[in-house]
Amino acid sequence: MNEVIDEPLTSTVRPGKLLIQTNILLKHLILPSVASAQNKFAILTLRVSSLAQLSVLTVRVIKSFPYRTVKYHVFQNVDITTVTAGEFLEKIQALVKTGSAFRAYRTVSLDTIKIYTKAHGSKSMNLVINFDDDAALILSDLNKTLQEYDIQNETELSVFNREAYEEFKRNPEEKW
What we know:
This protein is of the alpha+beta class and 176 residues long.
């Protein structure tokens, strides 16, 4: 008779240089061994759940487009398969409200996320924001996951006020 055993197993995985503790659900299917002379059991291990895709994302918080006031923050261990754009925007807004490094940025209403560049991709000539293809690069549906927007490990995202962006896009004059 075949027997199925569910066991949680703690494992350590190393994506890049990070060590992450995860719980993996394994199913052991015990089958009679044909090759064994003593008719022992062979254990066939099947992986049922996949590991979360943890990524490192760099966020560029933009206060002013004309003065090129930008502050960077690196988010590590972001699960891009489950975190939605809205949840990630809330996490950034909470960081700006509570982080001492972002004290000058608390007056800006951050309401938009846009992909600045992907890993190993070309960067924009503009140092502040990527003006290319707003329809594809702006995360407009906040209910979609980051992976649905094709965000991968080491992607740079810009967070800014949409009205200030539209005004700067009409007249991209830098004052500094």
